[in-house]
Design goal:
It is globular and about 40 Å long. The chain contains 1 helix and 11 strands; from the N terminus they run αβββββββββββ. It has one helix spanning about 1-30; strands at about 40, 45-50, 60-70, 75-80, 85-95, 100-105, 105-110, 115, 120-130, 140-145, 150-160. The chain is an alpha+beta fold. Strands 1, 2, 3, 4, 5, 6, 7, 8, 9, 10 and 11 form an 11-stranded mixed β-sheet that branches.
């Protein structure tokens, strides 16, 4: 009888401890700001996504069309790839017959508008693949926006002579 009473008390203490742990976990989860969690960018569509693979150690170029379906403008602030050590936004332009390229930190996406990443304009420069990349591969890229939302798009690898996503 004493043994069963002791086990019952120990069992009740264990349940009380579990209730306290659950309550503390719940309280801590309420203290974490909601903005710390990235949300899917349902308001952004990324289509016609492709990568031009260049020979040797030359950087690859990423191209796509980004459509902002939201009523508010967005700003693309970062692009990441698990397959490339570096993914950077660049802008190419011609001035007096000379082509120039510069890195840009952000790319505005106006409300209800499209922005095209294309050869000779805005594009993604992908450097230092972490594994061999070949024509036909499907490479996901993660896009982060200043509103905290993210979007992932799958880019198809095309040959060096490609001029569009179907080549």
């Amino acid at each position: 009888m004493v043994l069963s009473l002791r086990l019952s008390i120990d069992h009740q203490r264990g349940e009380l401890c579990m209730i306290r742990i659950a309550a503390m976990t719940f309280a801590i989860s309420l203290a974490i700001p909601v903005t710390a969690v990235a949300t899917m960018a349902d308001h952004v569509r990324i289509t016609q996504a492709w990568i031009r693979l260049l020979p040797g150690n030359l950087p690859a170029g990423g191209y796509a069309e980004l459509a902002n379906d939201a009523a508010e403008p967005l700003v693309l602030r970062d692009i990441q790839s698990a397959l490339y050590a570096s993914a950077m936004l660049h802008q190419s332009n011609s001035d007096g017959g000379m082509s120039r390229m510069k890195m840009i930190d952000q790319l505005p996406l106006p409300a209800h508008a499209r922005v095209t990443l294309s050869p000779g304009g805005y594009h993604i420069m992908l450097e230092s693949p972490t594994a061999p990349v070949k024509v036909g591969d499907d490479i996901p890229l993660r896009f982060e926006f200043t509103d905290g939302s993210v979007a992932t798009a799958h880019f198809t690898v095309r040959p060096a002579n490609a001029v569009g996503p179907q080549d």
